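Researcher: Here's the sequence for the chain we discussed earlier.
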Amino acid sequence: MKIIGATPLLAVVILGGCASGRTAAQPPATIPQASQDVWKTFAAKLPIGSTVNVGTTDGRRLTAVLLVVDRDEIIVKPKTRIPEPEQHVRFDRLERLELKRESQGGYGKAVAIGAGAGGAGFLVLLLLALASWD
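Model: Thanks. This is the structure I predict for it:
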């Protein structure tokens, strides 16, 4: 009975999204563009050799190492599994440039610290039990 009642609701939700004509993959009609001077000033303040996320107006996205900040472009070396040559990205084609923050270890590091602390606590309790045993 619950399935029969939920089926029309599910159909309305699914078909309602299809009838709107919009999809989530479409970018907004107007994207605010920063001027070239702003990109030049920002790029000049980034340390050479830092890891950056780069996005261009033609849709390319890459994580790369910043090599050179020139008058008209930046030169980056993509961080890929297979080595690629340096890429020149002109400031007029730049849509996004941000400094990538290095991760601090994530869940694996937290699990290792927790396991180490738990093991050390167990050994302390075991030694205390052995010391008090007559």
